[in-house]
Write a structure and sequence with these properties.
Strand content: under 5%
Number of domains: 1
Number of strands: 0
Oligomer: single chain
Shape: globular
Order of helices and strands: HHHHHHHH
Radius of gyration: 18 Å
Length: about 190
């Protein structure tokens, strides 16, 4: 019988604190960029609200120890639809497709990475949701190829981070996935 390894809570807490600091720094940078480039469109506020929303979910999942990956995927889709709707209501300037949705995809990938590191034994339960986020992150690439998105940099970065995150989590959890496959298929 395979027993889960006990995680070092100090390392997990340190990782969460570092990632919270990175998220806070990104929020400040987004606010500064917003103020300098397009002060009349409050896109940074919406992106920062998305970052806060996802971190509340991550911290809740770590503390409650529930499979929250499905909720992360659903919330990523819901927030993306919300910002696209807000952009449409403001006259569709395109910031939702070129800035907000890629940032939401990046944050959801960071969330999935944190979930994988903190509770790596449950990665098998997270794998399908991680794949869903990867598929969702390919939508900006499709929009770029159709010339719908004007600013392409953030969309490409979001798709790249999503693919790298999937590869990294597969590497981190390859042994556990192999054991689960052997157990399920009696190999």
């Amino acid at each position: 019988m395979i027993y889960p390894k006990k995680l070092n809570s100090k390392k997990s807490d340190l990782l969460v604190k570092i990632l919270l600091f990175v998220s806070f720094s990104i929020a400040i940078i987004l606010t500064i960029i917003n103020k300098l480039t397009t002060p009349n469109i409050p896109w940074a506020m919406l992106s920062n609200a998305g970052i806060i929303y996802i971190w509340i979910t991550v911290l809740y999942s770590i503390n409650k120890n529930v499979n929250i990956a499905g909720h992360v995927l659903v919330q990523t889709i819901a927030i993306s639809l919300l910002v696209a709707f807000i952009d449409y209501q403001l006259g569709f300037k395109g910031w939702s497709l070129s800035i907000a949705i890629p940032i939401i995809i990046i944050v959801s990938n960071i969330t999935m990475l944190v979930l994988t590191i903190v509770s790596h034994k449950k990665y098998i339960k997270y794998a399908i949701y991680q794949l869903g986020i990867v598929i969702l992150s390919m939508i900006p690439v499709i929009l770029i190829s159709e010339n719908i998105v004007e600013e392409k940099t953030l969309s490409i970065i979001a798709s790249g981070i999503s693919i790298l995150n999937l590869i990294l989590t597969l590497i981190l959890c390859a042994k556990d996935m192999k054991e689960a496959i052997i157990r399920k298929f009696h190999m």
